Amino acid sequence: MGPENGTPRDDYPVRVRDLLRQRAVWVLPLVLASVVVASMTALYLASAVNPLAHVRDLPVEVVNSDRGATLGTEHLDIGRRIETGLRASPAVSGRLRLEPVTRSEAERAMNRGRAYATVVIPPDFTASLLTQAGLPPAGSSAAGPPSAGTAGAGAIQLLTNPRAGTLGVSLATGILQPAVAAASRTVSGQLTAVAGAGPHDAATKAFLANPVTVTTSQFHPPPASSALGLSAFYLALLTLMCGFLAGTILHSTVDAALGYGTSEVGPRWTQLQPKAISRWRTLLIKWAMAAVLTAVVTGLMLAVAAGAVGMDAPHPLLLWLYAWLCAASVAAGTIVLFAVLGTPGQLAAILLFVYAGLASAGGTVPVEALPGFFRLLSEAEPLRQILAGDRAILYFGAQADAGLTRGVVAAAIGLLCWLAVGTLVVRWYDRRALHRLTPELLAYVDRAVQDYRAQGRAE
Questions:
Q1: Are strands 74-76 and 69-71 parallel, antiparallel or unpaired?
Q2: How far apart are CA 360 and CA 364, in angstroms?
Q3: Contact between residue 253 and residue 289 where contact means Cβ atoms under 8 Å apart
Q4: Whole-number Å distance between alpha carbons of 229 and 312
Q5: What are the C-alpha distances in Å from 17 to residues 7, 14, 28, 230, 261?
Q6: Is pLDDT of 6 > 70?
Q7: Does residue 133 contact residue 211 with C-beta atoms inside 8 Å?
Q8: Which residues pair with 322 in a beta bridge?
Q9: For the whole model, what pTM was predicted?
Q10: What is the C-alpha to C-alpha distance for residues 127 and 75, in angstroms, rounded to an integer?
Q11: Which of the 8 DSSP states describes residue 303?
């Protein structure tokens, strides 16, 4: 109680309204929050808001096995005409990278995640079209036009590869199907001209109106427990978060243990006496602990994902070693950003690793459908490289050339680069005597602590 009027004594004289009236209290959080939110919104939405407008070089294989057919004295090859028409169409060739290959080459490419779809024109394509139109080619044993329901007549097969990315498949099919429909109208005019205006039954007339059709099927669909082909992206994002969180947690906990940060749990606030340690040794401690912590958390992540949740996870040991390497690389980078930038390093790490990574990884929107800036960014962003390796392990039998080599090399290079940057900058700080706390201040704090403890013992 107060000594004079009996009112409770206020040990905390700072008033809320007095603090809120200070401009400096508002400026920094408003500026930082505005910059970070605007940046992450621009990064995340600019890459995904209109992927169709940015599609370039989306890889699609073309297997044209059509042998053609002879009608009278003329040899027709409608399959070749359709392939040429697709290549000549700006709506197709300006967006898709059509590669003419054999069937085995197409399967090899899709089994390595290098193509989103394959257009297959069968060997008897031209012959079946002529027969269905009532124009059996030379050498055909058909006595007349087959029924309208003849299987495979005029059918082009579109094999999709959802293991390479579901949105990439949707973009490829969305571009190819209208193009084939346009080709069907062209073929319709050609067949109608050849067939003449003579009497045709209803089935033949219906066929001539739309002779070319597309049948779509999946080529080796993703495993049942793979989130429809998205489990690799989810796992890559979790791996990146393992590294980011490990770096963030270690920065705060190690600093608290060394006396350069506070520890607050519930109502308990703790500040240890700062220890005389260089920035370089502090960084080494955090890096060493990050190597251990990322091994533990990535193992726990996979145990929950594959064991508790039931995600399909072949090659579990390889998957863990790869996740550990990638998470350790991200953790090392996060710790370096803290060491170089201080507290703003956390915001820099969020933008660099998380939001820039989400925008350019190709996990949802394929890299070939990203704006130019994000395509360039994806070459260095760790999330894309993590995703490449995860897809190779989860969907493509851990083949090195399916993305695993790319992921391992990129993660190793990233780790070495962060170690080099951290070493150069932090040791330069130490050489320039840019201490976190100067030796004089550390000595003053040490004397103050000793005096406080002596006073406590005396009382």
A1: antiparallel
A2: 9
A3: no
A4: 11
A5: 21, 9, 18, 50, 28
A6: no
A7: yes
A8: none
A9: 0.87
A10: 11
A11: I
Tell me the C-alpha distance between 392 and 396, whole Å: 5
Structure tokens at 188: 């319709």
- Which pLDDT score is estimated for 149? 38
Question: Is the Cβ–Cβ distance between 325 and 411 less than 8 Å?
Answer: yes
The identity of residue 57, as a single letter, is: D
| Rounded Cα–Cα distance for residues 398 and 275 (Å) | 47
What's the one-letter identity of residue 126? T
Alpha helices of 47-165 — where are they, by DSSP H? 78-88, 90-93, 103-110, 125-132
Q: What is the mean pLDDT of residues 129-142?
A: 71
Taking residue 267's Cβ as centre, other Cβ atoms within 10 Å add up to: 5
Contact 214, 156 (CB under 8 A): yes
Gap between the Cα atoms of 147 and 204, Å rounded: 8
Q: Which two tokens stand for residue 331?
A: 């953790």
Task: Find the length of the chain.
Answer: 459
C-alpha 321/C-alpha 308 separation (Å) is 20
Within 10 A of 16 (CB to CB), how many other CB atoms are there?
A: 7
How far apart, in whole angstroms, are the C-alpha atoms of residue 255 and residue 260?
5
CB-CB contact of 382 with 410 (8 Å): yes
Question: pLDDT at residue 284 above 50?
Answer: yes
